[in-house]
Amino acid sequence: RTNFGSSNYFVTALRGAVMGSVAEETPRALTRYGLDRPSIRLTVKTTGGASANLWIGNKAGEEAAYYAQNSVRPQVFTINQTTYDQLKQDLDNYRNRTLFDFETSAARRVEILSSDGEMRLDKRGEEWFRAGSPEKKVETAKVETFLNSVHALRVQQFVNDRPGQLAQYGLDKPWL
To answer: What CA–CA distance (Å, rounded) separates 146 from 136?
Structure first.
């Protein structure tokens, strides 16, 4: 998790992140490394509740590296440019773009409401049925394909972060 102002953004993966050379084993002052006021503060939280921090400061001379320090070790070390670039992106790149977070195999009911009416599918055992009178069996492969498609939906662009202004987008009374 990185913190930019009052907002938190989540990093899901870093590629090629390695500690480079050690600049100083036990630094007395962090100012010369820019770590007294780091440009990036990264907090990693585990599912068990533990956390560790990484602070990134100034560029390390002419190298394609930056000074860094973490909360686990006292050393000031360098990280490569690639790691820095992954963390110093436009804030919108950190946003979770997943629309629906569920396991498709755990789905037991699907309800679709639209201006044309509604449809409800229920799963019993390994088979899907369309609710209604009479109830009708539905091809499992088609429902699974639909669920996989819904699960794969991703946000392309965030237009507005202000709740309560849905009418201007026609979302106060959605058609689906």
So the answer is: 17
